Amino acid sequence: MFDLLSDVLETARFQSFVFGKSELSAPWGVRFPAGPEEMPAHVGPPIEEIPEPLRGRKPPHPSGCFYAITRGNCILEIDGKSDPLTLAGGDLIVLLHAPGHVLRDGPTSAVRPLWKVHPFERVRQHKGLMVGGGGAVTSLMGGAFFFQDRQDSRLVSSLPPVLHLRAEDGRIAPWLEDTVRFMAYEMDEYGPGSQTVINHLAQILFIQAVRAYVRTLPDGNGNWLQAMLDPEIGPALGSIHHHPEVAWTVASLADTVAMSRSAFAARFASLVGEPPLQYLTRRRMNRATDMLCENQMAIKEIALKIGYASEAAFSKAFKRVHGVAPGAYRRGVLRPDSASIPPQLP
Q1: Dist CA 258 CA 260 (whole Å)
Q2: Residue range 9-26, pLDDT digits in tens
Q3: Fold that domain 278-334 belongs to in CATH
Q4: Helix runs in the chain, H state only
Q5: 333 pLDDT band (50/70/90 cuts)?
Q6: CATH T-level fold of 4-216
């Protein structure tokens, strides 16, 4: 059975950076910036550690961040939201779009900016924050996500800005405890391949948060993630994702789920937010960008693998979506000092 949610999560390409396990003793308060403009110019790695093409640029701002609370309690205050969230041991929270926010032990505790309490040297060594006044301790693991396609990601846009998984009956879930412990071990040892392991563990935290959110969606709410679970539209989406190279028509997709053409087209557009063939094109372009970025397969071969009869037809469709020809897109990806690359479609 084709697992559509797994396919979507696997193609949501992102990297992570885990700060490390933080030990914060009351009273404490830390401000996490909304963007590079909040950080002083001198904060960051030494110039000689920055690749030549990136020197002089502002560091990329995360697409999201997460905190796994392993002990104690704290308050999370998010820019633009009036009500703070109370986090307890065993909670996992994911903030998409990485808004500015404050973590502190209580509503009256003084707050200091991140760059003043967490020197870059500790960041580079994956060492967490060690701040506070010596009182009750809150332990947490935190990190940031960097989605390659955050501007146009259908997955990210289908999720709420805050995903909050609460502890199970006040206890940390075994999977969360094990994942955090494994992260801590890799960061302490930090041998060959550790960054890849840490990145995958952070992805597990994100995936668990998405799965928990999907389970809460009511039927018929118009969310793209909910459309995957629809008994009629879900299998059609699965067919598109699993076999984008097939010459699908609205009629043939409708046949796969035993619906009339008109009823299928209307329901698909209502749940997914666009017509079936438009979605098919987006899926094909998504696969194409993956192939262009990850290997040196000939463009003609890529065209055939995603359902185009000729390189010319594929190139025309690709340029209509991305604004550049496939070859130019590939060259831009391989040259980090090039002009900005159009983001991957969802």
Answers
A1: 7
A2: 776 667 777 888 899 999
A3: Arc Repressor Mutant, subunit A (1.10.10)
A4: 4-11, 114-117, 120-124, 154-157, 174-189, 194-216, 224-229, 233-242, 250-256, 261-272, 276-294, 299-305, 311-322, 326-334
A5: low
A6: Jelly Rolls (2.60.120)
